[in-house]
Write a structure and sequence with these properties.
about 400 residues; alpha+beta; MgtE N-terminal fold; CBS-domain; 3 domains; magnesium ion transmembrane transporter activity; SH3_actinomycetes
Amino acid sequence: MARLAGVSVFDPAGDQIGRIRDVVVGLRGPLRPAVHGMVVEVQPRRRVFLPITRVRGIEAGAVVFTGRLNMRRFEKRSTETLVIGEMLDRAVTVDGERMTVFDLAMEETRPSAWEITKVAAYRGRRRRDPRIVAWEEVSGFDELQRDQGAAGLIAAFESMRAADMASALHELPGKRRIEVARALDDDRLADVLEELPPRDQIGILGTLEPARAADVLEEMDPDDAADLLNDLPADQAAHLLALMEPQEAAPVRRLLTYPQDTAGGMMTSEPVILPPSATVAEALAHIRQKDLSPSVAAQVYVTRPPNETPTGAYLGVSHFQRLLRDPPSTLLGSVLDPSIDPIRPGFTLPEVAQYLASYNLVAAPVVDELGRLVGAVTVDDVLDHMLPADWREGARP
């Protein structure tokens, strides 16, 4: 059942309508739990319920259902349990020995009726001696556990994009959310935090040791780290900034000097920047980096040294489409777009949006009064600020 996380769901016509995020069951004491259905995430980030009676096929990488899907937001009942979110990593007892659950299996016991029949568990911390046993041989699922762990759930979510994992994390009970967040690596947690609502960001960061919280902030994009620090109490934000490495804190401090709803407050301080003597081949190598978002990788900014913000004199921008059309040995200084003027850090949100729309751009260079490039505002930065404050939590009816 852990492998169902992220599996595509198709309607009777063969159209993909969403992805599975969890499986809903009802615990019945010593009896096998009955599978009620699946939690399916449809766009935009809405979780709905797919009854198990509507499921007509479960295959590798696909679940097919029949009938119509009720688009009302899923609300878990007090008598229900989520398999992936709440049952994985549970400490249980098998033949008198304490073990940790890492998967469960369900079977169709009669037409359109499914039950959990088997449990996969291991002892120790490194999945030693894994065992698959019948549900009846396991006890402990009904016990209250103070520290459940998160290895199994993280493994189930491993292939998800950061935004999808953030959505899954947001839907977990508060205690479980904290357990999973604290078990993530710093870089993965940073990616997920960037996609969470501010309330979740603050809650998770507040449970971390200050030194680790500072490490996670260092892994975040400077503009996202600055937005998060802006939401914290001033003394807490100052303390975390002081714990960060000076070179990592410097761009964040600069961003904090600008109002949040201006180009300076929205921009990323780490766009792709190269000197005019660099070649098209070098530029393409830079924008191929997999950790760059598509909007950041869509253009290369050309400046005089130094080539880190704030840079030397800003010379212009070269779009990736132009880079693909020119020979690899061409110098960047000769492939600049002369029609794009930079914007100032003080541009307001409506002004930045109008600028991007007028020139059909996905990003805009931000240049200060000294002619230095200080960052770039991307279209996703603008959308982030134009959407309602709670948009990451999903629109409710």
